[in-house]
Amino acid sequence: YDHQDVPFERLVEALNPERSTAYHPLFQVAFFWQSGMAGLDLPGLRAVPEPVVTGTAKFDLLFQVEGPSGPDSSGGQRGHGLRGLVEYATDLFDRGTAEALAARFVRLVGELAADPRLRLDAVDALAPAERDRLLRVVNDTAVDTPQMTVSALFEQRAMAAPDTLAVVSGAQSLTYRELNERANRLARELVRRGVGAESAVAVAVPRSAEYVVAVLAVLKSGGAYVPLAHDHPAQRLEFMLRDASPALLLTTSEAAAAMPQGACPRLVVDDPDTAAAVSAQPGDDLPDAGSPDRLAYVIYTSGSTGVPKGTGVSHRALADLAVDRRWRGGIDGPTARVLMHSATTFDISGYEMWVPLLNGGRIVVAPPGKLDVDALATVIAEQRVTALTMSAGLFSVIADERPDSFAGVREVLPCGELVPAEAVTRILRACPGVTVTNAYGPTEATVFATTHSVTAAARVGTAFPVGRPMDNTRAYVLDARLRPVPPGVEGELYLAGSGLARGYAHRPGLTAARFVACPFGGTGERMYRTGDVVVWTKDGELVFKARADDQVKIRGFRVEPGEVESALVAHPAVARAAVIARPSPGGTGGQQLIAYVVPAGVPDRPEGPGGAAPSGTGPSGAGPLAERPAGAVGPEELRGHLARSLPEYMVPSAFVELDALPLTRHGKVDRHALPSPRSPEVGSPAALVRPRTATERAVAAIWADLLDRDEIGVHEKFFEAGGTSLSLLALSSRLAELGLKRLPLSAYFEHTSVEAMARLLDATARETADELGYEL
C-alpha cells in the first residue's frame, strides 16, 4: 500500500519476469480488499452492485474481501462484518480444496480478530475434525503382532511346514527343516566362541544360501548381525569393524581375503575344520529367552559427519515388518517366491529375507555379482518369482529396456528414490496382473514405513504417492514447530511406531537429535525425523516432494554429501569441495553424483552481491578436471582416491573444478548455483578421435543416446562422460539388441572407453565364430 501509486509499467520493467502463456508473469495469487461497496442513492432510483461471473479465472487464486460500508443517507449502517469470495482456476484446484482454503482464511481472521496480539505462526490452521483425521484416523494402524523374536517366529514356521522349500540358490535348495538345523548348528558354534545376548557379529558372506544360514544363526545365538560387503574399500571396512566392535567376523574363504586383518576373531564357515566343528553340533533349537526388543541387526549408512553410522534395529521392528497384513495378498504361503538380489548391506535385503521366511514363502537367491536387465528377467522367469523389490532407478531402466520382465510377477516394489509415474505406467501396460507398490521407508524405520499400490495404468496419475502408514506405524507431517499441517501443505515427515530403530550405535547425541519425543503418543514415545518433505493428499496419501537437507539417494543407497566432501578434501590437492546429485543423463532414471572442487593454492575470491556465484569458474571456465592446465589434479586420481575409502556408488560420476564455491548470503555453499558439468568439447583430448569401425560407431551411438550427448570420442571413458551403473545396464541391453554378444557387466567396468568396449566385443565375436566354425 505504501507504493500503490507506482506505475504498473515501471513495476514490470523493474522485475522483468520470465513470460509464459501458462500463468501470470508477476504473481499467481491475488488478495483484493474493498470497502464501502454501497449502493448509489438517486431520486427515484436505487442502484446496487451486482456480481458478474465471467467463468474465467484471472489468477490461480483470487481472494476478494469486502469490508462494511459506511452509514446510509438516513444515518443507519448498511451492514456489519466482512463478505468474501474465492475465485480459483479449475485446472489447478477443485471445489473442495478452494472451500478448505477459504475456511482456513476465515479461521485465521477470526483468531486474529479475537486476539490482535497473536503471532501469525501461532494460529492453528486446522479445524478440530481435520486435526483428528490427520493425527488419529490416517494413523489408525494398531494391530496385535506376535511378541516373539524373529528366530522364534521362524522356528514356528519350520515346525509347521518342515518340508517346504525355504531357500533356492542355483542348484542348491534348503527346506525349512534343513535351514533351521543348519542355522542351529552354526548358532551353537557361535555361542561356544563367545557370542551372547546382543553381541555384534560381522557377517561378510556373499549373497547365497550360506548367507541366509549365517544371519539366521546369529539371531539364534542371541547376537545381532552386522552385514559387511567384502568389495567395499578396506578403510571403510576397518572403520565399521572398529565402530561395531563385533565379537566375531563370520565370513567365507572367498570374502576373507578382502577383510581387514586383526580386527576381531574370524570364523570362516567353509573352512574344513570349521565345517567339521559346526557339523558336530546338535541341530535342535536353542533356548530362546530373548525379548523382542533385543537388537537384531546393525546396518551402516552414509553419515553427514564424514564417517558411516550404524543403525540398530530390534527383533520387534523386524518381525512387525515381516508379518504386516499388506503382504497377505501375495507373499503369504508356500507359493510365494521372493527374489533376493540386493546387496546384503542395503536395508531392503531385510524384506527379501524375512518377509518370505516368516510368511512360509521361499527365498530365490539371484546369481552372484551384478545382474544386467536380461539376466534379471531370466531369473524372474525361470524361478517363477512372485515378488521382488529394487531401487527406483533400476525399475526405470527395466521399464525402458524390458518392461515385460515382470510378466507373471504378483508384486514389484520400487523403492529408495522417487518412483517415476511414467515408468510405473509402462510396466503396468506391459504386464497385466502385476501390482506395483511404492515402498517408502528410511533405514531408521526398518525398511518400509508406508506403501501405495496400483494395478491399472489408468490409475497411476502424474505423481506416484508413497502412500499410507503400514501396520503399527504412524506418520505425521509437521511444520517447524512440530504442528500438523493441512493437506496440500508441505511439511517434514515424522514416523512413529513399533518399526522405529533403537538408534545409532555409539552415537547418543545423533540419536537424540533424530529420534525426538512424540507429542502425539504415550509417555516416552519417540518419533523419527526423516528429513523428507511431503504433503498429505485429500485422500490421505503421502506424496514425496523434496529433502529438507542435502541427503540424496543413489541407486536406492543413502548418500550424505558431507561424507563424500570430507573424503575429497582429504586429498592434498583439494582445498574445498561440494557434492550434489543431478538427474542421470539420457532418461535412465535415478541420479548421479557431481563433485565440485577448489584446488589447493587457489586464492579465495570475493562473491558478487547477494551471494551470487562468482563470475568465472576456473582458469578456462567450469568443466571436467581433465580440461585443467598441466599440474591440476585429474578425475582419475580423485576417483582412485575416493575409491580407497568409499563404496562405488558414493564415487561421483563427474568432477568440476572451480575457482571458488558459490555461497549464499549466510556463507553456506549455494548448491543451486553450482554449474552443470560441461561435456568435453570437440577437439579436447577425450573427444578428438571419432569412431572408426562399425562396432565403435554402434557403441558410441548408444553412449550418445544414454548420456544425452551429440558426439562421443572413442577414448572417452564411460563413467567420466557421465555414465552410471544404471546406464551401464541399459548399455548392455542395447548392445545385445544390436546382435552383439552379451558380456558380463564386470567386463564393461574393466573396459570403459568406446575403443576398449568395441575391441572386447569384436574379440568375443571372433572367439564365438571360431568355436562354431564360421569365418568372419
Describe the structure.
Strands 16-17-18-19-20 form a five-stranded mixed beta sheet. Strands 21, 22, 24, 25 and 26 form a five-stranded antiparallel beta sheet that branches. Helices cover 29% and strands 20% of the residues. It is α/β, with parallel strands linked by helices and 776 residues long. The chain starts with 7 loop residues before the first helix and ends with a helix. A hairpin with a 2-residue loop joins strand 6 (165-169) and strand 7 (172-175). The longest helix has 20 residues, at 95-114. The model is unreliable at 606-631, 679-687 and 768-776 (pLDDT under 50). The chain is globular, with a radius of gyration of 30 Å. Helix 5 packs across helix 6 (209-220) and helix 13 runs parallel beside helix 19. It has 21 helices and 32 strands.
Beta-strand proportion: 15-25%
- Major β-sheet profile: 5 strands, mixed
Based on Cα principal axes, name the global outline.
Answer: globular
Count of discrete alpha- or pi-helical segments spanning 4 or more residues? 21
* Unreliable residue runs: 606-631, 679-687, 768-776
State mean pLDDT (0 to 100 scale): 85
Using only C-alpha atoms, the radius of gyration works out to: 30 Å
Q: Given the helix and strand composition, which structural class is it?
A: alpha/beta
> Strand order, biggest sheet?
16-17-18-19-20
Tally of strands: 32
Q: Residue share in helices?
A: 25-40%
